[in-house]
Amino acid sequence: MSSNNESIGKTLGVVIGLCLVCAVVVSAASVQLRPLQQANKIEDVQRNILAAAGFNDVTDVKATFGTNIESRVINMKTGDFVDVDPMSFDFEMTKFDDTRSIALSKADDIAGVQRMTNNSPVYLSKDENGNVASVILPIQGYGLWGVMFGFLALDSDGQTINAIQFYKHNETAGLGGEIQNPKWTATWAGKSLPIDIVKGTSDGDANKIDGLSGATLTSVGVDNTIDFWTGNTGFGPFLAKVRKGALN
Ligand SMILES: Cc1cc2nc3c(=O)[nH]c(=O)nc-3n(C[C@H](O)[C@H](O)[C@H](O)COP(=O)(O)O)c2cc1C
């Protein structure tokens, strides 16, 4: 014989109660963990900027970043430094704010970023004498499957590539995902802008990089990304000043 405890009403009550408790626990955990997730995101970006600047396997990211990297914000049109807190700058948010970004024409938008922000952060790594050793530029552009995010580190001459570092993308592991392979990224060091990623071998040409085999479309995406960000719609005006010795 069924007791009162086994009635449909009671069972539903227990299920709904349990659902409510779980929902409250999950929501509370999500709210509580948000600052930690934000801090981890910032640390990951800083770790990648440090890697682009040549600081690898860093244990204390915050301290190493604080000591060795200066974060600045520039006006993309003029290439001048502007007085904006780099920590307050969020490219993804700013990009969709009409007052702080502009829509790009199809012809200009070779990296598929849609809009360009009026300002952008840049990162300067200093040597032991306080001179700028590397200018690290945030870059992003379409590969085959989605947007690839990274950093391009240039020498203080604004021309020579020190490093390239991708930290987020949707390319296929073993194919386009090889953009993160240290063996491939090492081939960028010492090359000079403008860069052309070629199918096959670059034959030691200072302006050419070997394309990734089996990943021509991703390689084209990286090529377009570099052309875009080092060109006039990207960091071109800033790089023109860097090339005239604006940093040291
Ligand atoms: C499942 C799958 C995943 C692929 N992923 C990529 C990729 O991430 N990047 C890429 O350029 N090509 C990728 N390709 C290959 C492209 O379709 C295309 O064949 C290739 O870019 C041509 O490069 P290749 O001329 O160097 O062979 C993928 C193909 C398949 C079937």
Defining key terms:
248 residues, six-stranded antiparallel β-sheet, 6 helices, 10 strands, 34% helix, globular, binds flavin mononucleotide, ubiquinone, transmembrane helix, translocase, ion transport
Map the helices and strands:
Elements lengths: L7 H45 L8 H8 E7 L5 E2 L8 H5 L5 E3 L11 E3 L1 E8 L5 E11 L4 E9 L5 E8 L13 H4 L10 E3 L9 E3 L5 H15 L5 H8 L5
Parallel strand pairs: 9-10
Antiparallel strand pairs: 1-2, 1-5, 3-4, 5-6, 6-7, 7-8
What distance lies between the first and last C-alpha atoms, to the nearest angstrom?
89 Å
Bound molecules: flavin mononucleotide
- Estimate the strand proportion: 15-25%
SS summary, helix count? 6
Q: Let me know the largest β-sheet.
A: 6 strands, antiparallel
Annotation, overall tally of beta strands: 10
Label the structural class.
Answer: alpha+beta
Could you tell me the mean pLDDT? 92
Supply Rg: 23 Å
Compressed to H and E, one letter per element, the order equals HHEEHEEEEEEHEEHH
Helical percentage: 25-40%
Low-confidence stretches: none
- Enumerate the strands of the largest sheet in spatial order, edge to edge or round the barrel: 2-1-5-6-7-8
Count of individual domains: 1
Shape: globular
